What does this fold into?
Amino acid sequence: MSITDVLSADDIAAALQECQDPDTFEPQKFFQTSGLSKMSASQVKDVFRFIDNDQSGYLDEEELK
It folds into this structure.
């Protein structure tokens, strides 16, 4: 499974572009731009689990890269 099986690569890139500068991350805007806001809670959890490689329950900088 790839993250692009669930979210559009273009939407992911646009969401990441919006928060490149320090202190510009806005979770609600990120969820909208990436397409996460259109998903059910279960689908968002699946995406989180996919990104959380070490299964810590947190997303660290390396996992987000």
